[in-house]
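Lab notebook, bench 4. Still working through the backlog of constructs that have no structural model yet. Next entry is a single chain of 336 residues. Request: give me the structure tokens for it.
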Amino acid sequence: MLPSVLQFLISAAVIIAAGSVLTQFGDIISHRTKLGGLLVGSILIAGATSLPELAVDVNAVRMGAPDLAVGDLMGSSLFNLLILAVLDLTRYSHGRMLSETSARHALAASVSIALTAVAAIFILLGPRLESATFLRIGPGSVALVAAYVLGIRLIFCTRVEPEKTSRKSPPSWIPGVGKLKLKGAIVGYVIAAIIILAAAPVLAQAADELAKSTGLGGTFFGSTFVALCTSLPEMVTTFTAVRMKAFDMALGNVFGSNCFNMVLLVPLDFVDPGSLLSSVAQTHAYTALCAIVVTAVVILGQLFRVERKKPFVEPDALLAIFLVLCSLVGLYLLKE
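Model written out:
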């Protein structure tokens, strides 16, 4: 018991440190390349923080636990939205949730909704599609790839809009990091991403050992505890981005990570001997629908303008938190 606890705490500390540094390097890259926080957060930061899910879930599929893997990805999307809502409660702001550049973030959130909906549809169609595959992946994976490419294209087109920010240079609490050139920032980003990728499976393994005695089914366990552990990099990077006032990057990281979570179903499908979405429990469609509803609430929080937002009295954030908690209760009632 004690070794698992120490393994969990040490790996979590490593991920927290690497995630904080990763966000700073990502912010420098967004400034040096003029790509903007939204695009960098949606692709570079989100891609790096989604690597733990890939490592953990590929291993789960290979061990014959596809429900654990799919549950992790669906649950991770819910926890990412919960993280965003909690952070919004801690920030006193005028106008929209975390950022004024709402239209671009609403677009990224809408892409995550579309991808999650595609996954849910093919999970529900699973019994009828049986084991149909094309180049070792099912029709749902093909649809996810096509939808993701189109969605990222739309997000990429928004980068031409000037990013509203009061920050003239990327801040850093690590001496010398803010003065790095693009090449140095890229090297630092890659190193931090590798550290996260290496530490996350260790964290998930420790979490698995600590929770084996619960007797919960793989679907519920994957959608809650494992998802919470693999969402730790997103939590750290999003918190760091908000602390740095890089709100575009924070929102881009959350919505981009949720997009990546759905796309990660494709390599898992490739590893699975059959059609992944056709073989997993349909309970995952419920989790996907819950993520869609919560994302829609966050979009409303982005688009709805108010004269003043009061700290700790944010209707959009509170509603999002309430819906996530209700989703977890419903998932427990549906556990297998």
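Notes after review: The first helix runs from residue 2 to 33. The chain is about 75% helix and 0% strand. Flag for follow-up if needed.
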